[in-house]
């Protein structure tokens, strides 16, 4: 009897595992190369989870094999629980390390237990990256997964946290904008003790190491370049993000985030720009 009852159970478990595997493709090694301590796992829903591990010897990261030119990039992240002061966790796009590089950043600056984690959003255009908008998160980013999204098209760059837009960085024809250099996608976890938390006053407490950040549900709906002067290869239905700009309600959430959670705005930092604010600060 016992054996006969067991068989359907085994079949049911096998089918459930198959269904889970089919619902979520593995993505880490298919799409990225890795650096440092990276662990791969599957969560209870069958999704592949990539965890970055930071200890005293090394940080960690993953870097897309493909370069992209415009797209919508999204990932779910569960940040470091407890005292994460001094750590920096990121999800970003970058054209490389050269002096005239472009970059679009979402970086999370850790904090002491109970103190708010800061989300730093930034845009680098042709090597100039003094364009930060920083927010205190309105939830505990370590308690659960949240979705972080970057939309990059030729009109604007939009940053989204779960379903809420927190920033749009517009293109002006006469001002630098990341619009000519393909970028790859990166995620990193590193020791930013010298600047991350309260301007570097709170360094990493290594007695809490190793620090672990988990990523899952990565998607890139994006165009890829075919070489200088040739048209991009784009997936079907590109307009859903290629033409994306914020409507009034979505601009409302940007204002909401600005009013209630903004921690730093480069356009208000007169000390940093004694010769006057960057031109885009007085547009819109
Ligand atoms: C850390 O917490 C302090 C105190 O609440 C806060 O002022 C600061 O903005 C937080 N974040 C960082 C990255 O320093």
Describe the model:
By secondary structure, the protein is α+β, with helices and mostly antiparallel strands. It has one domain: Jelly Rolls, CATH 2.60.120.200. Helices cover 15% and strands 36% of the residues. It has a 14-stranded antiparallel beta sheet with strand order 11-10-9-4-13-2-1-3-12-5-6-7-8-14. The structure holds 2-acetamido-2-deoxy-beta-D-glucopyranose (NAG). 2-acetamido-2-deoxy-beta-D-glucopyranose (NAG) binds next to loops.
Task: Give the overall average pLDDT.
Answer: 92
Quickly give the CATH architecture: Sandwich
CATH third-tier fold name: Jelly Rolls
What is the approximate shape?
globular
Bound molecule types? 2-acetamido-2-deoxy-beta-D-glucopyranose
How many DSSP-defined strands?
A: 14
Function: Catalyzes xyloglucan endohydrolysis (XEH) and/or endotransglycosylation (XET). Cleaves and religates xyloglucan polymers, an essential constituent of the primary cell wall, and thereby participates in cell wall construction of growing tissues.
InterPro entries: Beta-glucanase-like, Beta-glucanase/XTH, Beta_glucanase, ConA-like_dom_sf, XET_C, XTH
Keywords: Apoplast, Cell wall, Cell wall biogenesis/degradation, Disulfide bond, Glycosidase, Hydrolase, Secreted, Signal, Transferase
Signal peptide: 1-24
């Amino acid at each position: 009897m016992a054996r006969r009852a067991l068989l359907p159970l085994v079949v049911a478990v096998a089918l459930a595992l198959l269904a889970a595997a089919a619902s979520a493709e593995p993505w880490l090694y298919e799409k990225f190369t890795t650096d440092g301590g990276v662990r791969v796992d599957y969560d209870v829903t069958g999704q592949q989870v990539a965890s970055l591990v930071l200890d005293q010897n090394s940080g960690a990261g993953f870097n897309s094999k493909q370069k992209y030119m415009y797209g919508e990039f999204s990932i779910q992240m569960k940040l470091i629980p407890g005292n994460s002061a001094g750590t920096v966790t990121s999800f970003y796009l970058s054209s490389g390390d050269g002096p005239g590089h472009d970059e679009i950043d979402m970086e999370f600056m850790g904090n002491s237990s109970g103190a708010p984690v800061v989300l730093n959003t930034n845009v680098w255009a042709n090597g100039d990256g003094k364009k930060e908008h920083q927010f205190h998160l309105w939830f505990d980013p370590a308690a659960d997964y949240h979705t972080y999204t970057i939309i990059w098209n030729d009109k604007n760059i939009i940053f989204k946290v779960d379903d809420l837009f927190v920033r749009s960085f517009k293109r002006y024809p006469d001002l630098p904008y990341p619009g000519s250099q393909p970028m790859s996608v990166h995620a990193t976890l590193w020791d930013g003790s010298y600047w991350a938390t309260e301007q570097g006053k709170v360094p990493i407490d290594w007695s809490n190491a190793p620090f672990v950040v988990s990523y899952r549900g990565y998607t890139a709906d994006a165009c890829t370049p075919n070489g200088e002067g040739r048209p991009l290869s784009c997936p079907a239905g590109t307009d859903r993000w290629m033409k994306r700009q914020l409507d009034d309600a979505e601009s409302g959430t940007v204002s909401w985030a600005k009013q209630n959670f903004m921690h730093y705005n480069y356009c208000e930092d007169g000390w940093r720009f004694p010769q006057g604010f960057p031109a885009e600060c007085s547009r819109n």
